[in-house]
Amino acid sequence: MVKKATRRVTDPVANLVTTALGSTRSGSAQPVVPKETPEPAAVPPAAMPAPLPEPQPRPSETDLNWMFDYHKPTEDQVEKYARISAAAKNLARVILQVCPPCADRSAAVRKVREARMTANLSITLHGSI
């Protein structure tokens, strides 16, 4: 009887495929069947958490009213607005001094303005939105 020579696969991709699929003595690849895991024990209904409430669409009508109504600033808020504006102005100055004139520089200054306005809104709306 002539013994068939077995060829060792040295291709790493082929090794991965052979390892993933498994092989039999006949050389045909067979998928590896995962071992069955036991079913988890049933949770008694009393131990199950209550369902979450239905999510409300944001922003709601109340949110819109709150966002777009005028909110007279307090003295404390005026001071905070001034600090944010001063810092934003300084950053915008640095951008104008350091960056070459281009669309990106204009966008950077615009984003600083946007950041200042958003920061001021967070103060105005007391972080509620």
Q: Quick summary of this structure?
A:
With 129 residues, this protein is mainly alpha-helical. Helix content is 50%, strand content 0%.
Task: Supply the key terms.
mainly alpha; 129 residues; single chain
Description:
With 129 residues, this protein is mainly alpha-helical. The chain has a domain at 61-124. It is 50% helix and 0% strand. It is built from 4 helices and no strands. It has helices at residues 12-21, 61-68, 75-98, 103-124. Helix 3 packs antiparallel against helix 4 (103-124). It is elongated, with a radius of gyration of 33 Å.
Q: What is the distance, rounded to the nearest whole angstrom, between the alpha carbons of the first and last residues?
A: 83 Å
Report the biggest beta sheet as strand number plus sense, adding barrel if it closes: none
How many helices? The count is 4
Q: Using the CA coordinates, give the radius of gyration.
A: 33 Å
Strand content: under 5%
Helices and strands, in N-to-C order? HHHH
Class derived from helix and strand content: mainly alpha
Residues in helices, as a percent range: 40-55%
How would you state the average pLDDT, rounded?
A: 79
DSSP strand count:
0
Which runs of at least 5 residues are low in confidence (pLDDT < 50)? none
Globular, elongated, flat, extended or rod-shaped: what is the shape? elongated
